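Submission sheet (multi-component)
Chains listed below:
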Amino acid sequence: MIATGFAVTTLLLSVALGKSARRNKIKDSPYECGMLPIGESQPRFSVKFYLVAMLFVIFDIEVVFMYPWALTFRDFLARDQAAMVFWSMSGFVGILLVAYLYALKKGALSWES
Amino acid sequence: MMPSLNEYLMVSGLLFAIGFAGVLMRRNIIIIFMCLEMMLSAANLSLVAFWRFGNGQGMPAQGYDAQVLVFFVIAVAAAEVAVGLAIIVALFRARCTVHVEDLNSMKG
Amino acid sequence: MLPYYLEICVVVLGSLMLCMELFAGRRSRAKIAMVGVAGLGVIFALLMFAVCSPGEDLQYWGIYHFDKWAAFYKGLALISTLLVLVMAREFAPVFKHYTSQDEEKSGIGEFYCLPIFVCSGLMWMASAKDLVTIFVSLELVTMGFYVLVAFMRRNVGSLEAGVKYLILGALSTGFLVYGIAWTFGVSGTFNLEELSVVLAGDDIPSAPVMFAFALLIAGIGFKIAVVPFQIWVPDVYQGAAMPVTAYLSVASKAAGFIVFLRVVDPFLAAPSIREPAIYLMVFVTCATLIYGNLAAIAQKNIKRLLAYSSIAHAGFLLMALPALGAAGTIAGPGPESAISFYLAGYLLMTLLCFLVLTVVRVATNGEDLTALEGLGKRSPFLAFAMLVGVASLAGIPLTVGFFGKFFLFNIAIQNAMQNGLWIVVFLAVLGAATGFYYYFKIIRAMYWEGSVSEGEVTGLKVGRLAMLAIILLVVAVFFFGIFPAPLLGLTL
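Outcome: structure written.
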């Protein structure tokens, strides 16, 4: 309570008292006392970046499913269901492999093109 | 002080409401997409909270079903982002815009 | 053979086709669609012969059920995917126009693979009796459709439809997950059978249960396009490619309905929340019937017209829901059977219409009602096929659509006599009457409008496989319209 109250009060106070919050045209320019920038403010990224990032996210998340599998593997061994649990994970990895091959063959992972 | 189930549900409901309001009010598709992810996170939070206080006496519920669902939701959200961003990039290339008002080629 | 091998077969088939697209030469790559059609045919035969064990309810790990409805809806998913592949082959020139003329860059091979993966999701949905599996399979289907809808990447309409479907689909996913979370919170289980046991208890707080129920309805209602979750339907149907629209309106809806029935069932069975739940359902049904039928009247684009008609059909289907678990017995087939029969008939007639429209679209490049003008002279065969499909959608006797509507009205009227709720029956009759008008617009355009000069009479080109599919569908619409028993027998 006290911490939140302090944070909120300070923020409000700084807005109310601070002069720097007042805006004008010069204040809004990117460099207040410099040259005006030429071109776009954000550099353009190649779509390749997004492609690789997306593929990373997807394959990264897939690993999440292997952790519970690894943790419960011993229990399944104890219950004599090793084959079932092994083949189900093999199927999962197999589908991933097809997806990986697809990305590789379509050139999604190569930088030069 | 240990937070109770109610507080978790409150936070998750707030997150969900913020996300939903964002989807309804924002005009930029990327931001709408971020709000949608927030709604999924809100659902995840309440799932984990419900699991943690599952048995009624403040102790976790039996089994790990809720956590498994949370994993699935995370995976689905990631896949949705991948597919979604690809579609949005394709739209941007064709129309040079990511604003919902500009999606008006179909009427009726 | 274990029933879940069917899904594994479908996934393996999809992966094989993907590998073919990657590694095979140009010649054999052209056959990907044929491999898909043949593979799905074999899997359908497996479903028919290998696992046909009526009356059995097999369970695996508590998350996978195989009963008569699961088998029925798996069959629907397989048939519709097969026909969609046939349609996509016909549609290939348009795809190339809007992606890339180069076979390799057009990604047409992937377009044939995606419905296969979607099909595995649809089949899994038919067997899902657990909220976790329902969620995962539903997402598998939706994710495939995101890509399919936005597939024509040089076509602005397709991309817009893709973005709209993406945002609203993700929104409905959010509602669904939140609803599942609350259901888990009040009941402590994801399993629908355990859920119905928990909900039947007396000490269940009704407010959070109703909250969870409403969220679940919002999530799944999106998939089956009921008002107020229908806003995506017209635009997405119009923007997407013709085969994708057909697939969306048939397979996605059928699988959505089996999930809908399974999720709604435990809530309607619980005495403490039955009444508000029924009122919620009745409200949704009435809104869907009114909106779908009225909005369809003014449409000029055929796909848009069929989109609104698909909303109206969802309304007719929902009509049977209040009878689910209601007091009193109902003569004739029960709600689940009537809905299943209607969906099967809907599959036949809708795919028939879309097959004809695909051929017309490729030949005339038009999707408005004017594109159909003079079809009666240009190609009497196609016009007749379209006539049959449209007549069946309207519910004219001797077609399968008539019996579909007949069974649903039978249930709704008997339920109304026992428990009230005449408003639903009244609106449905009104809707069916409106339906005659807007379906007749299509027939009028084909036979009485537009003058065709002699030069144009040179017929439309129809592929051999598509021709066979059209003939089979016409025969099926008539056959089940005269003898509904064989189809109905599968659902009882």
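Remark: The two ends of chain A are 57 Å apart (CA to CA).
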